[in-house]
């Protein structure tokens, strides 16, 4: 029997995203059964364990988010994979979430609901927050919209109470209605608490969207928080695969294109905090609500026309003007999103998924899904199941 590789996981267990990373790593380990894992108990931003500098291990997967961890990792003469966006050690291979894809998904979510005013609430301590801010502002600018930004500073610079006061004033001063993206769910929770304390109506005045889809935090929010689901499980698994390749080749770096990987999010879980159609055109708002409520049926644009007093030409024009897509494209988009969700989270057959997503046949669903994603449904399910 070959000797098991000793691998240290310097990943905190205090938040949902990091635990998702660990689950992905664990799934890889269970298949290979070739690692002995060292997992110190850590919180976000914790200093590295004292034993690391003299540890006789084979590899490390770490969230290198501060200079202390970077200083401890840099001298190690073993393979290391970074799962942080901070890039404290840019020469080390990394696997991270695709923050541009997250921002694009958030922006599209708000546009689908008719918002043309946007805001971002971030935290300057985290590189991934800064990345998401830039990408979200850019998404808005590319379509001709502005985006208000509030970024919390380090508590070394501003006290928590002072920061909360500044954030409160910023929220009160935002033009309404506004679609607000928070850098992660915990920040979104703070925003919602301030809204509740100051009678800012959610989602009617401020629609709030988080990132991480931490079920506990989202359900504790009032109202329950809509949130983007990053592919934490898949990111952790890819990091484990990368580290295994480096250890097998006894090298600390790789010239392969896969040495740096950005993993896109897997979906968006809509709850009450963004459950609104903020469109100033009543007919188009009714059309969007009808699609939202009936896309699982075999509806067509003709069915929408039975419920709104418009000609097809006027409906198409005003729909495109308000939402940037046609009614047919919106029906197709919602159906495909439902297919993705069921492939990831259910044991339904492809025929059952097609039926529950508004497709007349499994074959038609498969063709549409492959055209949209580049992958057949079965392959997508294998790659994303449980992540």
Automatic annotation (TrEMBL):
Gene3D superfamilies: 3.40.50.2300, Homeodomain-like. One of its GO terms (molecular function) is DNA-binding transcription factor activity. It comes from Aporhodopirellula rubra. InterPro entries: Homeodomain-like_sf (IPR009057), HTH_AraC (IPR018060), LacI/GalR-like_sensor (IPR046335), Peripla_BP_I (IPR028082), XylR_PBP1 (IPR054031). The lineage of its organism: Bacteria, Pseudomonadati, Planctomycetota, Planctomycetia, Pirellulales. Keywords: DNA-binding, Transcription, Transcription regulation. It comes from the Bacteria. This is LacI family transcriptional regulator. Pfam families: HTH_18 (PF12833), PBP1_XylR (PF22177), Peripla_BP_3 (PF13377). Residues 285-383 form the HTH araC/xylS-type domain. Coiled coil: none annotated.
